[in-house]
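Hi V.,

You were right to ask for the full record rather than a summary. Here it is.
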Amino acid sequence: MFAAASKLYVARGKKVVTFDLKKEKPDKEAFEKMILGRTGNLRAPTIRMGKKLIIGFNEDSYREFFGIK
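Predicted structure:
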């Protein structure tokens, strides 16, 4: 799933961290901490839109991604 993505957006509350996966390789330990929940599973919701991968929920970001005003 990550190999096909070029952009990764990770939402945690009001903070959204963006990674350009084609240009940068995040530190594995920090990366796993961001995308995995307490149980070790991928955080929800996780959405793939083309080459964008969105993990977590942030209302403002979702409005932007889906073009909702």
